[in-house]
From TrEMBL:
The lineage of its organism: Bacteria, Bacillati, Actinomycetota, Actinomycetes, Mycobacteriales. This is Cutinase. Its EC number is 3.1.1.-. Catalyzes the hydrolysis of complex carboxylic polyesters found in the cell wall of plants. Degrades cutin, a macromolecule that forms the structure of the plant cuticle. Pfam families: Cutinase. Belongs to the cutinase family. Gene3D superfamilies: alpha/beta hydrolase (3.40.50.1820). GO terms for molecular function: carboxylic ester hydrolase activity. GO terms for cellular component: extracellular region. Keywords: Disulfide bond, Hydrolase, Secreted, Serine esterase, Signal. It is an enzyme of class 3 (hydrolase).
Length: 227
């Protein structure tokens, strides 16, 4: 069975099993429109399946903790615009939207330090724009290599990529060293385990705070091009 087929089978199983699942995505034509305001830090976060429009519970906890770690710096937030429903292939819209916003930010706010994040299906959106994972699954292209020079940190939670080839830290040459890829115990979305409740406990387990501390450290030492 091909990697793509295995991906589809796993995602279908997550949907029918009632998990807050995750999808693998491609990259479409960038469509973000309004030019971003130039903050010190811009967080681009993709919510998980069935979470309401916005950054989701995990994203909000991560962002709140990150702001607490970066007092004195302005932190902008962009919620990736995509359906985040059980039609997982529609997550291509999330990849396109995230990539468009990131590239718009790098061109209009070159000194802004970008932090990428995603939970569950949202983590897969981030996988698809940060390098080799996009090529690995044959579902699109990553962002231009020079974009990585503006991204200070990446934080993903409950990432389905772990079920196929390993964490994003190992699979992305450009972003791996600046990434924290967290799986909560036996969360079946990102591990071979069967602890379904673990998939919804990233905030309670303190993993969003752990990731925020990691990202804040990266932001403090990161120097964008031209600075």
């Amino acid at each position: 069975m091909s990697v793509q087929s295995k991906t589809y089978v796993l995602l279908a199983g997550m949907a029918t099993g009632g998990l807050v699942g995750a999808g693998l995505i491609g990259l479409g034509v960038p469509t973000a429109s309004a030019a971003p305001r130039c903050s010190d830090v811009e967080v681009v976060f993709a919510r998980g399946t069935d979470e309401p429009v916005g950054v989701g519970r995990e994203g909000q906890a991560f962002i709140d903790s990150l702001k607490g770690n970066l007092r004195g710096k302005t932190v902008g937030v962009y919620a990736v615009n995509y359906p985040a429903d059980h039609d997982f292939l529609q997550a291509t819209a999330g990849a396109a939207d995230a990539a468009a916003h990131v590239q718009l930010t790098t061109s209009t706010c070159p000194n802004t330090k970008i932090v990428l994040g995603g939970y569950s299906q949202g983590a897969a959106v981030i996988d698809g724009i940060t390098g080799d994972p996009a090529r690995l699954f044959g579902l699109g292209q990553p962002m231009p290599p020079e974009v990585a020079n503006h991204v200070a940190a990446v934080a993903v939670f409950g990432n389905p990529l772990n079920r196929f080839g390993g964490p994003l830290t190992a699979l992305s040459p450009l972003y791996g060293a600046k990434t924290i890829d967290l799986c909560n115990g036996a969360d079946p979305v990102c591990s071979p385990g069967e602890d379904r409740p673990a998939h919804s406990q990233y905030v309670d387990a303190g993993l969003t705070s752990q990731a925020a501390a990691f990202a804040a450290d990266r932001v403090r030492t990161f120097v964008p091009p031209g600075v």
